[in-house]
Amino acid sequence: MDLTVIWAFIIAFAVFAYVVMDGFDLGIGILFPTFAVGRERDRAMNSIAPVWDGNETWLVLGGGGLFAAFPLAYAVILPATYPLIIAMLLGLVFRGVAFEFRWRDPSHRAFWDGAFTGGSLVAALAQGMTLGALLQGIEVDGRAYAGSWFDWLTPYTLLTGLGTVAGYALLGSTWLIWKLDGDEQAHARKLAVRSAAATIVLMGAVSVYNITLNPEYAAHWLAAPQIYWVAPVPIVTAIIAISMVRAITRDRNSKPFWLAIALFFLGMSGLGVTIWPYVVPPGVTIWDAAAPESSQIFMLVGVAITMPLIIAYTIWAYWVFRGKVADEGYH
User: What proportions of the chain, in percent to the nearest 5, are helix, strand and coil?
Assistant: First the structure.
C-alpha cells in the first residue's frame, strides 16, 4: 500500500469537493449583478445561506493536507503564488462579510452586493490562475522556489482563471435552476446556457494549451499505449456536456447541476492525467515531496476519523435544506 498515493487522492478529493461546493456559491456571486434587485437577489442568497460557510471546510482540509502530507510542495507552491493566494483569501473575506452585512445594513446594500460580486470574482479568478501557475511549471532550485514574484502571470494562467470563473458561473446557475422556480428559474436557465457555452469553449482551449506546455503532458495524452487508456476522458466529457445543455433547455431541475458536477469531475480527472505523477511540475513528484511514512500514518488516522464526520454533516445539512427556496429565509 503506497501511503503517498493515498494522500494524493485524499487531497485531490478535498480539492474537488471544495471546487464543487464552494464553486456554486462563488458562481452565484459572479452572476449576482445580472439578478434583479430585491426578490431575485434575496432568493439567490437564501439558496446558499444554509450551506455556504461549511463548504469552505474542504479548502481547509485540502490546504492543511498539502502542508502535512507534502510539505515540500507546500513550501514551493505558496511562495510561487503568494499574490494569488492573498487575493483569493481577501476575496473570500469580502464575500463572507458582504453576505452578512447586506442583510444587517440595508441602507448600503448596493455596496455590499458589489463586494459580494467582487469578492466572488476575485476568489474564482485567483483559484483558476493558481491552478494554471502550477500546471505551467514552477522553477525550483534544490528544495526552494527559485522564480520571481510574477512568474504566475502568463496568458495561460489568465485562460485557466477565466475558465474557472465560467465554470463556477455554470455551477451557480444550475444550482439556481434546482433551487428556484418561476421567473427566477427561467432567468437562471438563460444564464446556464451562456455559462455552459463559455465553460465548454474554455475547457477545450485549456486542454489544447496543456499539450503544448510540456512534452510529457503531450505524451500522457497522445503517445501509445497511454492514449488507449485516456481516450475515453474527452469522449465522455463531450457526451456529458451535450447532455447537460439538453437538460438545461428541457426544463429539468436538478439534472443540470449534477451533470455540471460530472463535467468538473472529468475536467479535474483530465488535469490529473496531465500532471501525474508530479505535484510541482516539472520536477517534483509526489514521492519527492512526501512527508515521512510515520507522519503520513499518524495523519491518516486523523483523516479516517474526521473525513467521514465532515461528509456526514455535509450530507445532513443539504438534506435538511432540500427543496425549493421560499420567500422567507435568511435575514
Answer: 80, 5, 20
Report in angstroms the alpha-carbon separations of 51 from 46, 58, 109, 303: 10, 13, 22, 22
> Grid coordinates in use for 193?
446556457
pLDDT at 331: 46
Q: How many CA atoms lie within 13 A of 306 on its CB side?
A: 12
Largest CA distance in the chain: 63
User: What Rg, from alpha-carbon coordinates, does the chain have?
Assistant: 20
Burial (CB < 10 A; 0-12, 13-18, 19+), residue 125, is buried
Phi, psi (degrees; rounded to nearest 5) at 94: -60, -40
More confident: 224 or 278: 278
Q: Is the dihedral of CA 226, 232, 234, 235 positive or negative?
A: positive
**Grid cell digits, residue 150:** 510574477
Where do the H-state alpha helices sit in the chain? 3-31, 39-48, 52-55, 57-69, 71-80, 82-104, 109-136, 155-179, 182-213, 215-222, 226-230, 232-249, 255-275, 286-289, 293-320
Residue 328 has a pLDDT of 55
Mean pLDDT of 230-249: 90
- For 206, the enclosing helix (H) or strand (E) is helix 182-213
Q: Is the pLDDT of residue 96 over 90?
A: no
- Pull the grid cell for residue 216: 510529457
Grid-cell match 507522519, residue found? 295
Q: Give the three-state DSSP class for 250.
A: coil
Query: Is residue 50 packed enough to be buried (19+ CB in 10 Å), middle (13-18) or exposed (0-12)?
Result: middle
